[in-house]
Design brief:
heterodimer, A: mainly beta, 5-stranded mixed β-sheet, 4-stranded antiparallel β-sheet, 46% strand, globular, B: 7-stranded mixed β-sheet
Chain lengths: 114, 116
């Protein structure tokens, strides 16, 4: 899997949008971008994933640049409960020996403050 | 839906004993389960991948004789830490890949192991 680069930490005010960047400049054409988050002492929680197009679900939006070398996870209205470590992962979704594996980097510690 | 449970949530044991951790997919069938380990202030490290009915595939540097993985059914995988030592103290997390939605992986809540 390609490596990703994320800022180690970010702050956000409650109620504001949180924009978490991720660089994945060596991403391959068949690799998807996944976002997970981990609240302290819990298992990771799936947020969203995408290949080329921007994606949106009830939790967040994912914006992928046209060259696919970077992406941004957007939490539109951050709450205190969104404080967590956010992981950006690129992964092949079908075939290959790495099929299904998620390789976690250090992630971004997002702190939402009142 | 897509809930994964782990048991126990916390375990404290003496050095030299073995500890078994269970990972269950409660409302779906999982063809593949993954085991991760996470040390304090570090990221998750994949230990092994197990497919139902076959031997687990271990990541480089993970001792297969120390971390025994059994995946006997589509809803249960177990990780046994044999002859545990203090350096095995960690947060162990499993995840399960849904049989029908194989691009999605659901994580358990984790098991905190402390070896005295």
């Amino acid at each position: 899997d390609a490596k990703t680069t994320q800022p180690p930490s970010m702050d956000c005010a409650e109620g504001r949008a949180a924009n978490l960047p991720c660089n994945h400049s060596t991403i391959s054409g068949n690799e998807y971008v996944y976002w997970y988050r981990q609240i302290h002492s819990q298992g990771p929680q799936y947020i969203i994933h995408g290949l080329k197009n921007n994606e949106t679900n009830e939790m967040a939006s994912l914006i992928i640049t046209e060259d696919r070398k970077s992406s941004t996870l957007i939490l539109p209205h951050a709450t205190l409960r969104d404080t967590a470590v956010y992981y950006c992962i690129v992964r092949v979704n079908a075939g290959g020996t790495s099929y299904g594996k998620l390789t976690f980097g250090q992630g971004t510690i997002l702190t939402v403050h009142p | 839906g897509a809930v994964v449970s782990q048991h126990p949530s916390r375990v404290i044991c003496k050095s030299g004993t073995s500890v078994k951790i269970e990972c269950r997919s409660l409302d779906f069938q999982a063809t593949t389960m993954f085991w991760y380990r996470q040390f304090p202030k570090q990221s998750l490290m994949l230990m092994a991948t197990s497919n139902e009915g076959s031997k687990a595939t271990y990541e480089q540097g993970v001792e297969k004789d120390k971390f025994l993985i059994n995946h006997a059914s589509l809803t249960l995988s177990t990780l046994t830490v044999t002859s545990a030592h203090p350096e095995d103290s960690s947060f162990y997390i499993c995840s399960a890949r849904h049989r029908d939605f194989y691009n999605e992986q659901f994580f358990g809540p984790g098991t905190r192991l402390t070896v005295l």
